[in-house]
Description:
Elements: E1 10-12, E2 22-26, E3 34-38, H1 46-58, E4 64-68, H2 73-84, E5 89-91, H3 104-112, E6 115-119, H4 130-143, E7 146-148, H5 157-167, E8 172-173
Amino acid sequence: MNSTSRYEIRQLFLFDRKQNTVRAIGNQEICSQRKLALFCSSTCPGSVILKTVDYIKSLEGSNTAVISGFHSPVEQECLRVLQRINQPAILCPARSLEDMRLKPEWKKMLEAGNLLILSPFDAKYRRMTKELSWKRNQFVVSLADEVLVPFAVPGGRTERIISFINMHNKPILSLGSS
């Protein structure tokens, strides 16, 4: 038995009914909060990691939910920090929610009402791919009010998403790193 069977997958219309529906697990009220997208390259200097974690800690008690795929090591650490400080998060996997295994820390956040898992992908997309990751990142940007990019490797996928963010006039926050 997969771990999503215990949680109800609901369909949401976050944009309009012309768009495909978005599948959701968790506290849908989190969508009403300010949404800060987080994108960070997998390789990242230690000083940037520390600044990023400190920034995420500073969100404690604010009306801000962090939205991300929480895929890179820095993003995963930020999700752990959000769990510790009871701050809401929106996790967007680059695959469908059907038959997805939920990590124990995700289950704890779901039970505390601090997690919303969203996916724009149909049940046929059961495995993450680079193409689905790119589409997921576009989805995250479309939902975000502003975007935090602590570090982007030149020429990497995170740098590519910055171009997409700029095209959509979303404010980009940095932490004073080059």
